[in-house]
Amino acid sequence: MRADVTTARAKAKAINFAQKLALIDRPWSPRVVAEMNDDSPANLQFKLVKLEGEFVWHAHADTDETFLVVAGTLHMQFRDRVEVLQAGEMIVVPRGVEHCPRADGECHVLLIEPRGVVNTGEAGGELTAPNDVWV
Protein backbone atom coordinates (compact mmCIF):
# COMPACT_ATOMS: atom_id res chain seq x y z
CA MET A 1 0.00 0.00 0.00
CA ARG A 2 1.31 3.49 -0.87
CA ALA A 3 2.60 5.54 2.07
CA ASP A 4 0.37 8.55 1.23
CA VAL A 5 -2.75 6.33 1.27
CA THR A 6 -1.73 4.83 4.62
CA THR A 7 -1.18 8.32 6.07
CA ALA A 8 -4.57 9.58 4.83
CA ARG A 9 -6.39 6.58 6.28
CA ALA A 10 -4.65 7.10 9.61
CA LYS A 11 -6.14 10.62 9.74
CA ALA A 12 -9.72 9.43 9.18
CA LYS A 13 -11.84 10.33 12.22
CA ALA A 14 -15.53 10.39 13.06
CA ILE A 15 -17.16 13.80 12.72
CA ASN A 16 -19.78 14.72 15.30
CA PHE A 17 -22.38 16.96 13.64
CA ALA A 18 -23.81 18.24 16.95
CA GLN A 19 -20.36 19.35 18.16
CA LYS A 20 -19.57 21.04 14.84
CA LEU A 21 -22.98 22.76 14.61
CA ALA A 22 -22.49 24.15 18.15
CA LEU A 23 -19.49 26.09 16.76
CA ILE A 24 -21.57 27.80 14.05
CA ASP A 25 -22.94 31.04 15.45
CA ARG A 26 -25.07 32.43 12.62
CA PRO A 27 -27.37 31.19 9.90
CA TRP A 28 -26.43 30.93 6.22
CA SER A 29 -22.71 30.50 7.03
CA PRO A 30 -21.67 27.07 5.71
CA ARG A 31 -18.62 25.54 7.37
CA VAL A 32 -16.56 22.72 5.90
CA VAL A 33 -16.31 19.59 8.05
CA ALA A 34 -14.73 17.21 5.50
CA GLU A 35 -13.48 16.86 1.93
CA MET A 36 -13.46 13.94 -0.43
CA ASN A 37 -11.12 13.44 -3.41
CA ASP A 38 -9.08 16.49 -2.40
CA ASP A 39 -6.44 15.99 -5.11
CA SER A 40 -8.94 15.52 -7.90
CA PRO A 41 -11.22 17.65 -10.07
CA ALA A 42 -14.02 15.58 -8.53
CA ASN A 43 -13.31 17.15 -5.11
CA LEU A 44 -16.37 17.45 -2.87
CA GLN A 45 -16.81 19.37 0.36
CA PHE A 46 -19.19 18.45 3.15
CA LYS A 47 -20.46 21.60 4.84
CA LEU A 48 -22.70 22.03 7.85
CA VAL A 49 -24.94 25.07 7.92
CA LYS A 50 -27.71 26.47 10.08
CA LEU A 51 -30.62 27.89 8.13
CA GLU A 52 -33.28 30.26 9.40
CA GLY A 53 -35.57 32.50 7.38
CA GLU A 54 -35.40 32.84 3.62
CA PHE A 55 -32.20 32.78 1.56
CA VAL A 56 -31.82 34.40 -1.89
CA TRP A 57 -33.02 33.05 -5.22
CA HIS A 58 -29.98 31.71 -7.04
CA ALA A 59 -28.60 28.94 -9.24
CA HIS A 60 -25.26 27.23 -9.75
CA ALA A 61 -24.49 27.05 -13.46
CA ASP A 62 -21.73 24.44 -13.20
CA THR A 63 -22.72 22.03 -10.45
CA ASP A 64 -25.48 20.16 -8.69
CA GLU A 65 -25.93 20.86 -4.98
CA THR A 66 -27.07 18.36 -2.34
CA PHE A 67 -28.96 19.33 0.83
CA LEU A 68 -29.30 16.65 3.55
CA VAL A 69 -31.50 17.78 6.45
CA VAL A 70 -29.97 16.86 9.82
CA ALA A 71 -32.57 18.61 12.02
CA GLY A 72 -35.61 20.79 11.43
CA THR A 73 -37.62 21.43 8.28
CA LEU A 74 -36.31 22.80 4.99
CA HIS A 75 -38.58 24.31 2.35
CA MET A 76 -36.73 24.15 -0.97
CA GLN A 77 -38.48 26.65 -3.18
CA PHE A 78 -38.39 26.30 -6.93
CA ARG A 79 -40.15 28.62 -9.36
CA ASP A 80 -42.87 25.99 -9.98
CA ARG A 81 -43.17 24.23 -6.59
CA VAL A 82 -41.89 23.82 -3.03
CA GLU A 83 -40.34 20.60 -1.72
CA VAL A 84 -40.59 20.19 2.07
CA LEU A 85 -37.83 18.13 3.66
CA GLN A 86 -37.64 16.79 7.18
CA ALA A 87 -34.68 15.44 9.16
CA GLY A 88 -33.24 12.40 7.39
CA GLU A 89 -34.31 13.55 3.92
CA MET A 90 -32.22 15.06 1.14
CA ILE A 91 -32.63 16.76 -2.19
CA VAL A 92 -30.24 17.22 -5.10
CA VAL A 93 -30.75 20.54 -6.87
CA PRO A 94 -29.57 20.12 -10.48
CA ARG A 95 -27.07 22.58 -11.93
CA GLY A 96 -28.66 25.66 -13.45
CA VAL A 97 -31.95 25.27 -11.54
CA GLU A 98 -33.01 28.40 -9.68
CA HIS A 99 -33.88 27.70 -6.05
CA CYS A 100 -34.35 29.44 -2.72
CA PRO A 101 -33.99 27.55 0.58
CA ARG A 102 -36.27 28.62 3.45
CA ALA A 103 -36.51 27.49 7.05
CA ASP A 104 -39.30 28.83 9.24
CA GLY A 105 -37.36 27.79 12.36
CA GLU A 106 -33.72 26.82 12.78
CA CYS A 107 -32.79 23.99 10.41
CA HIS A 108 -29.47 22.12 10.26
CA VAL A 109 -28.26 20.92 6.86
CA LEU A 110 -25.30 19.03 5.48
CA LEU A 111 -24.40 20.49 2.07
CA ILE A 112 -22.43 18.39 -0.39
CA GLU A 113 -20.88 20.32 -3.26
CA PRO A 114 -17.56 20.87 -5.05
CA ARG A 115 -14.92 23.03 -3.39
CA GLY A 116 -15.23 26.71 -4.33
CA VAL A 117 -19.02 26.88 -4.85
CA VAL A 118 -20.32 30.30 -3.77
CA ASN A 119 -23.41 29.80 -1.61
CA THR A 120 -25.38 32.55 -3.36
CA GLY A 121 -24.32 31.54 -6.88
CA GLU A 122 -24.15 34.61 -9.11
CA ALA A 123 -26.85 36.40 -7.09
CA GLY A 124 -24.32 37.72 -4.56
CA GLY A 125 -25.49 39.93 -1.71
CA GLU A 126 -25.07 40.20 2.02
CA LEU A 127 -25.66 36.46 2.60
CA THR A 128 -22.65 35.46 0.49
CA ALA A 129 -20.38 33.45 2.79
CA PRO A 130 -16.62 33.05 2.50
CA ASN A 131 -15.47 29.73 1.03
CA ASP A 132 -13.30 27.03 2.57
CA VAL A 133 -13.93 28.01 6.20
CA TRP A 134 -13.51 24.91 8.33
CA VAL A 135 -15.05 24.20 11.70
Taking the sheet with the most strands, its summary is: 7 strands, antiparallel
Radius of gyration: 15 Å
Percentage of helical residues?
Answer: 10-25%
CA(first)-CA(last) distance:
31 Å
Low-confidence stretches: none
Average pLDDT value? Answer: 92
Structural class, please? mainly beta
Strand content: 35-45%
Number of E-state strands: 7
Shape: globular
In N-to-C order, the SSE pattern is: HHEEEEEEE
Count the helices. How many? 2
Q: Would you write up a description of this structure?
A:
- The protein has helices at 3-11, 17-22, and strands at 31-36, 44-54, 65-71, 73-78, 81-86, 90-93, 99-113.
- It is mostly beta strands and 135 residues long.
- Strands 1, 2, 3, 4, 5, 6 and 7 form a seven-stranded antiparallel β-sheet that branches.
- The longest helix has 9 residues, at 3-11.
- The N and C termini lie far apart (31 Å).
- The mean pLDDT is 92.
In brief:
The chain has 135 residues and is mainly beta. 11% of the residues lie in helices and 41% in strands. β4 and β5 (81-86) form a beta hairpin.
Provide key terms for this protein.
2 helices, mainly beta
Layout of secondary structure:
Elements: H1 3-11, H2 17-22, E1 31-36, E2 44-54, E3 65-71, E4 73-78, E5 81-86, E6 90-93, E7 99-113
Antiparallel strand pairs: 1-2, 2-7, 3-6, 3-7, 4-5, 4-7
